[in-house]
């Protein structure tokens, strides 16, 4: 047909070509000088030649790849995250300073099938018929979240009950996708048809079909997802609950969570929904994924090891550990604890998405993991203040034993506004905090002070409060096995100022400090406190003495660039990527895979750290650079 049209001017052949044109490609050697103009004046016109509902556009210029699409007569970037105003995006709103990674080029079969996929019967779809969420900063995903929240607000469910309903509905979606992934002969059940949306009362046949399908899905999932679904908070006879169900399914049915698991989707869910659900009550804040990924790669959790985050939040340390191990970590060896039941539900959802759901994540209100610990059987034990004072936690009147872990990864609450202040009229507060050696050291600063030659000072000031970061530092040490290692995010003041000299000396007397990473201000969405990461391992007392005699080295790095900045969009805090700029061309730099390069120090720091490890003691090498 191509030959017939060009040689003979055959119009029928031209029509055939337009009907079958699935991709147009433009190659340039202009070194990215005029990408917007090439798009506007050339590639757009080529795409319009196709009579298909979908046509792919490719622009390749000196190693830089840009993917576009014509879909339903809209001309946009192929990845929705780049279309900053959704389907209404014009050229200046297509993020043309950012390239597409080469691996985003769709397969030939995808291009042949895509029109059929879009029109496929909802009841006969598999996980591979759904769109991947390529980036959570896309307008579409933010709009999805806003629409759900708007519906919940209208029906009065922006409360704990509403949050639990939302989490349970999302867990059904994950179960549905994972079941289909294992058995693609069974189609997805998490969908809603146009007729099911239109109902006058809950007695209508169509909406009852939806309710029956979702109830069946819940029944199938309840055995596997017991922790989330043990209490059925969704009432199918309550129209407000059904309205939320319809909105959540409508908004998410065309996206795959399972195939999008490496994005920060859950952080967006948390920030979008947690604010109206009273997040601030427990002073929660989320650790940014680039920081989590960095610390996990440094500490290097491996197959067969037990891992815990005692202030688990939404479990990103645990889920990233699992993903980075190429799923070699056993879910059953992953533990977490938090004071907030809602956070634990979201954490469990996060681990369901990334693992098989066997991670042991528990909610303990009140003192949380300050008082409650895991025992050797995976159950919960509580410290007994009368027997466990001053860090003597292994002394127990029963058969239970404190569980010790190979790896602790945590970002605990810290800072002046999160200090633990025992109430004068609360004996339990005092009893709990006295289980910690560091509390007693801070409370007795005048005793055996080296500055006074070991003599007691004539007066001493009793501590009335203590930075929780200090307490969780001791907690991490106490729950580590000998030979275990930890990575902990703390206030920079703990690592630097005189008032925390006691904590630093205590740590040096207990652990082999491996690395200290200072972070820039404002790396977190909810706090402007300067922070440091401390990495250490727990040798025997004799091994530590030998290391001290050898004057062991500590790897130190002041990290300036983290690859993102905190921005607020529609009252939602987000970690927005920042990219490396070539200051000769003022273009975003790309890596060997065509990906835009984040402006961050983490990658080089990991390389430098691993190289440094090679020159250290064999035990350290085995922990931090041995293959997973």
Automatic annotation (TrEMBL):
InterPro entries: DNA_methylase_A-5, DNA_methylase_N6_adenine_CS, SAM-dependent_MTases_sf, T1MK-like_N_sf, Type-I_RE_MTase_Subunit
Catalytic activity: a 2'-deoxyadenosine in DNA + S-adenosyl-L-methionine = an N(6)-methyl-2'-deoxyadenosine in DNA + S-adenosyl-L-homocysteine + H(+)
Gene Ontology molecular function, alphabetical: DNA binding; endonuclease activity; N-methyltransferase activity; site-specific DNA-methyltransferase (adenine-specific) activity
A Gene Ontology BP annotation from the UniProt entry: methylation
Keywords: Endonuclease, Hydrolase, Methyltransferase, Nuclease, Restriction system, S-adenosyl-L-methionine, Transferase
EC number: 2.1.1.72
Phosphoprotein is among the record's keywords: no
Coiled coil: none
Transmembrane segments: none
Enzyme class name: transferase
Keyword hit for Transport: no
DNA methylase adenine-specific domain sequence ranges: 264-566
Matching Gene3D superfamilies: 1.20.1260.30, Vaccinia Virus protein VP39
Family note: Belongs to the N(4)/N(6)-methyltransferase family.
The protein's name: site-specific DNA-methyltransferase (adenine-specific)
